[in-house]
């Protein structure tokens, strides 16, 4: 259907018609899909897209680790002891 391929449906519609026509086709397809899915009793609720507590804990730890590493690098730079990569200078 898409996926960046020049053989996809939407690319073909853009090439043969216009981006507006492809957009209208995408809108029709999304409405059709939503109606079809809901007529079969399937739905997506807020609990399906709310992150779990374990994920939030892991996310917080990941962000905290990144912040502490960034802070260490900033402190090394301010002290003038930041190890330079080959071909780089302190600027």
Question: Explain this structure to me?
Answer:
The chain is mostly helical. It has 4 helices and no strands. It is flat.
Give a count of the beta strands, DSSP E runs of length 2 or more. Answer: 0
Biggest beta sheet attributes: none
Low-confidence stretches: none
What is the molecular shape?
Answer: flat
Mean pLDDT across every amino acid position:
89
- How many DSSP H or I helices? 4
Which structural category do the helix and sheet elements fall into? mainly alpha
How large is the radius of gyration? Answer: 25 Å
Helicity range of the residues?
A: 55-70%
- Tell me the span between the first and last alpha carbons: 48 Å
Strand content: under 5%
The sequence of SSEs as H and E is: HHHH
Count of all domains: 2
Brief account:
With 91 residues, the protein is mostly helical.
Q: Which descriptors would you attach to this protein?
A:
4 helices, 91 residues, mainly alpha, 2 domains
List the helices and strands and how they pair.
Elements (H helix, E strand, L loop, with lengths): L8 H8 L2 H21 L6 H4 L3 H27 L12
Helix pairs in contact: 1-2
